[in-house]
Amino acid sequence: MKTVAITINKGGVGKTMLAKTMATAATAAGLNALVLDMDTQQNATAWGKRRAKTDRPLPIARFVTEVDLADEIGRADKAGCDLTFIDTPPGRSSEAPAAVEVSDLVLIPFWADVDSFEGVTRTAHLCRRLGKPAFGVLNHATPNSRTHEDTSREVLQAINLPFVPVVLHRYEAHKVASLRGQTAQEIEPDSRAAEEVQALWAWLRAQLQDSTSAVVHTGAAA
């Protein structure tokens, strides 16, 4: 099983959205995916409960504390889970280091503003200290504009953090889908938002060195 931590010590940059969309994309690709929600606001957990009432209940999302994180990952692995995403809380806390420590790869979502860039820098230092590969993901960029992307590339290059080649833009489909317990690629499969999510998933899957012929698991992580 592979584990991806999604973290930055700043709120509102799309950590939960990224965890949901990537886990849903993984599920659609035939993988058994799980979202572990370490944020006490439990937004991912609430989304999972809404999703459980739909005709596509997977992936499962459940709340977990720092104390139980390692045990939860172990149970998921034994249950046949292929890929676990850890959604972390904002701010400086012990949850983020714990999530990074158990991960195989770290995604650092951010906006193109000063506060986010400072958060990216601190989180990148954490990942380096723990010896984990990390990548910056520009989220909520303005559609039809290159300004955010160009600025972000320069900042990440300056701090020596790889920039994910897929940029996620600000589309209403992400908010609408979340209210339904779904994701943008499910409610608007032909949209630009869906195209970006699928491109990001393809990139992530390559980074994790998954086989192109994934084994389909019929059971969920218990």
Summed over residues and divided by their number, the pLDDT gives a mean of: 91
Category from helices, strands and their pairing:
alpha/beta
The third-level CATH topology is Rossmann fold
* CATH homologous superfamily label: P-loop containing nucleotide triphosphate hydrolases
The low-confidence runs, each spanning 5 or more residues with pLDDT under 50, are: 210-222
Using DSSP, what is the number of strands? 6
Biggest beta-sheet profile: 6 strands, parallel
Q: At CATH's second level, what is the architecture?
A: 3-Layer(aba) Sandwich
| CATH C-level class | Alpha Beta
Overall radius of gyration:
16 Å
Q: Helix and strand string, N-terminal first?
A: EHEHEHEHEHEHHHH
Can you give keywords for this protein?
Rossmann fold, 9 helices, alpha/beta, disordered C terminus
Could you walk me through the main structural features you see in this protein, from its secondary elements to its overall organization?
- The protein is α/β, with parallel strands linked by helices.
- It has a single domain (2-207), classed as P-loop containing nucleotide triphosphate hydrolases (Rossmann fold, 3-Layer(aba) Sandwich).
- 44% of the residues lie in helices and 14% in strands.
- It has nine helices and six strands, in the order E-H-E-H-E-H-E-H-E-H-E-H-H-H-H.
- The chain has helices at 15-28, 43-52, 69-78, 95-101, 114-130, 147-158, 172-179, 184-187, 192-207, and strands at 2-6, 33-37, 60-63, 83-87, 105-110, 134-138.
- Strands 3-2-4-1-5-6 form a six-stranded parallel β-sheet, sandwiched between helices.
- Strand 2 (33-37), helix 2 and strand 3 form a beta-alpha-beta unit.
- Helix 1 (15-28) crosses helix 9 (192-207).
- The longest helix has 17 residues, at 114-130.
- Residues 210-222 have low confidence and may be disordered.
